[in-house]
């Protein structure tokens, strides 16, 4: 959808307000109002684009929706410098009065829901061919379901509204249960699946596979493994997706929208602010040699990677003979990026003392620009961020088989596809004949490695309820000095849900805060 203009937020605000019947029915022809909008399919498409626009993250500090790599900073995978809420979320210092991820995810998701509801109402007012109307209807439900899924994963049960509301009405809606919220997610995805085709009308828009994939994830995040298997089979029946031959190439702009991608968020570089800060703040200082990484991979993550042949790691040369995904994910000492040998190039221009460079021996590589000549200006990275890819479908199916104890060897075979099927990742296969508990360990480790720095580990830790087993985690710098200890007194279970924003509690007396926040 990179050819679709997404800068219509202000336009939408102008027509999403109601007009009073007391005014004379004389409407300006040079402005969009509820009196003259929408009138035709072009207006409907403009409205739809406005919903998609909200999926983009223009400020890396918020990390309100998918999180992508930065959300890994709230896990043992990465370290976030600064006293930001995303940092506090990762080390046990978060407060209900903090902002950024707490408030942004809530408000942005409800903005998506509001616009999707408006689109559905608009579809009732505009005459369209049934085939076109069904597609718009499917996409509206897809986007609304996606928003509710993000809310359910973060906050648990939330207020459910599927119609346009006044401000006063919105302040009177109580929280639904967590189960009811997830049920709403599934219901929306079901409508999307029913109405969307196997091929999207344009690149970047949702299709049946995207809706099925995110429905599968919704079941996965509820640990409903029977349903995970059912939906994964429906995805396979589309005969559309495959592992991309190059793991490294998955995260490069030239390979976007490939056969492994079920759904991604589209970015465009240029003057219209449709690019991303992701590369700038999460890479190795790209865009400026004086800017350090917003988040940095940890030794805890590096140590989780296996060797290619399954032999013990050589502590004297710890980066030799390692799973190739390590170097495709992390910039390790001695490797090159932007034409410079890491980590030496970080130091010119005073960057040596930048707080983001306290882990000077590691940096992130996924989703990074790798050629100095092609560096975008600040905030204009055009690399899409993948929300769901086929590897997730495979590992979800493997996890379901293991947890249901149905066919452990089949599950191991699926995991081994991830380890051997790509041209640039060939590591020792996991043997069959494992017990359920042994297979579970291998599956969870494989998910962590396969999706490292993609923002999924935070949700995995919560749904597996393993925080108490993996924390505390000590983060050290390149000299072995301790920078931070994540959850130094052990993981706090109530961190499995974010607090409801206090600003929302003050507006709606029927909202109840999550326990212990």
UniProtKB/TrEMBL annotation:
Domain SusD-like N-terminal: 41-220
Keyword Signal carried by entry: yes
Annotated ranges, domain RagB/SusD: 260-517
Pfam families to which the protein is assigned, alphabetical: SusD-like_3, SusD_RagB
Claim: Transferase is one of the keywords in the record: no
Cited SUPFAM superfamilies: TPR-like
UniProtKB keywords: Cell outer membrane, Membrane, Signal
Domain of life: Bacteria
Primary localization class, coarse: membrane
Cell location: Cell outer membrane
Entry's family note: Belongs to the SusD family.
Protein name: RagB/SusD family nutrient uptake outer membrane protein
